[in-house]
Hints:
CATH topology of the domain at 6-174: Alpha-Beta Plaits
CATH architecture of the domain at 6-174: 2-Layer Sandwich
Structural class: alpha/beta
Number of strands: 14
Strand content: 5-15%
Amino acid sequence: xxHQRQLxxxxxxxxxxxxxxMQHDEMKAxxxxxxxxxxxxxxxxxxxxxxxxxxxxxxxxxxNSVTEAVRCSVEIQKQLQQEPxxxxxxxxxxxxxxxxxxxxxxDGVNIASRIQSLGQANxxxxxxxxxxxxxxHPEFNSVSLGKFEFKNVDEPIEVFALANEGLIxxxxxxxxxxxxxxxxxxxxxxxxxTAVIILLxxxxxxxxxxxxxxxxxxxxxxxxxxxxxKNISVNKEENEPFCFGVALELQRKLEWLGGLIPIASQSxxxxxxxxxxxxxxxxxxxxISYIVQGSVQRDKNKIKVFASLIDALTGKELWSNDYPGDxxxxxxxxxxxxxxxxxxxxxxxxxxxxxxxxxVATKSAAAIDAYNEALTAYAKLVTAVHPLYWDSLxxxxxxxxxxxKTLSLCDNAIKTDPSMAEAYVLKGQTYFxxxxxxxxxxxxxxxxxDSMRSLGYKALQNDISSADAxxxxxxxxxxxDSALTYLEKAHSISANNFDVNRELGQYYSLGDPxxxxxxxxxxxxxxxxxxxxxxxxxxxxxTYHCYGDFEKAELYGKKAIELSNNSMISVEAxxxxxxxxxxxxxxxxxxxxxxQNVTQEPNALYEIAEAYCNLKNDCTKASELYEKLWSRYNxxxxxxxxxxxxxxxxxxxxxxxxxxxxxxxxxRGNDFLSYDYNDSYDYAGICALNGDKARAIEILRKWNWQxxxxxxxxxxxxxxxxxxxxxxKDIVQKALDEKTxxxxxxxxxxxxxxL
Length: 755
């Protein structure tokens, strides 16, 4: 069906400098918009016009009369010059318009917008067609500014300025807007001279590039952070989830570009509404090179996104632009912004990367809103729960209610658009917080894991390249090999994903320190300041611990404690540091840090007892502590540890009973676990303590010396019965030599900057 067209006088308005004002003084910006809208609405009605689109800081209006459109413009500017003044520019043109899905279309709309872009505060600019209609009206005085070539407009257009009293007539050389880059005509001599100069410059540039390096942009590390976008919508609270989702999705698109190192959103959330300078923010984020800031404005289904790219060192704006559209256009707008950023930073986008950043998650505005509402609820939930203690989600009615609410919001997003992969992943991630390692005894754990797997597979059915779906699936399998398969797939898709790097670092911390260090350091670079970052420092410290670099293990363990701000991670990091000191042989440090944990961590008493037994040789004190531990936690594992202390103070009968309990415990573990529990370090120790020296040596020959056990065994009284034997000494020395070689290899790699 053909569109119904109508001829109209088109009026575009825009508040000059509004985005910058919003960044610096939000309350003043909101007051400015309210005053502007009040004046606009009264004036348009008074002059028989219609506000077709309201962008908050700008609008598109139409009139049946050119004269009334210009009179309305004069009235608006007159009112807005009075205090509190509003710096407004206005552009007008005549043209045919038509409507399509509530959008105003037509060349006239495009031209009016281009003319308005030339303006300054308190200007009214218009086309020659408008001037022809009003030039015989004595109430209007106009001045020609010359012809301009606008982007996406074929012919040059003569632009006029209204010169009535109180209005500004800008000088042509001061004008800038949506113009083509025109080429000046030159004489043949000038062309030859210009060509010679260009050739010399090209040659100089070639020499500089090859002998002195690339340009400042090309040579800089492409570290970049997307600050939380300002929500400058009139209905701010209602549109907050949408605004939150816009910046988050842009960060995700940048994450897919291998030429960038984008800082994770969790680390930049703290800068929402900050008054810190760009330079200070960049420094706090580890000395990053670039920052993206912007704003989101929404009125019903209409949106306008503003984004700018800042050089963090100089504070210079490298690029900025406005992106108007509808809610369902948001993914293409974000793709456009990501492409512009990549272009400004000379980052090449591969075909695979282009495919990912160009993906449209949903074409439904309702689904976008439903998903962003669920995403906002999820972010609030995990931010509140993650730093707390083990049972905080299940035991706190408010948190549990928020957990159920988040699941319900995810269901609503899935129902609104069943093809939206992100909604399935988000629900699976919410489930994960119910059964993570902090809540190991949750009822229906198996059923929840099955649900997570199902959600992960459904997400992949809709988006086979969803790194988050593969990450979710990696958390659903107890077998390490299965988890690694999904983690590696996720990493191949999104090498800049913080969670993927973090979990790969944790995975390799036991057996492959080179990979563990590389992934942990990358994770810290990507997310230096979030509530998750301390756990990466903890894993990094554990990695160094495993091959005997205790100085670095101590350094990173203390860093984890420092950043964790007395949260649950602080308890875990403190325990990790305590174990480092235990294996290092520093009894007083073990006792000091374990005592900090004793009210929250059951194993704190255990580690203090171990220090007294194995390092201070005070088995009486150790036995008292073990007894206290078991009376407080009667299901505590490893009774053979208590048996060692009892054996050394002559309580052989009680010790034998504990050894018997330990054998029973290990047999039960062997029945339930997928690996041979009887080939473990502690089982070898039980055999040695019980007098079965041959079996102990047999197990130790096959042992892989994980988790720093080679350092513990040097003072572990479990092995005193075989400590002086040649076979034992040879096994231990061989393992120590291998760890020393590994430690030296990694030290050299770090010196060369390879890790």
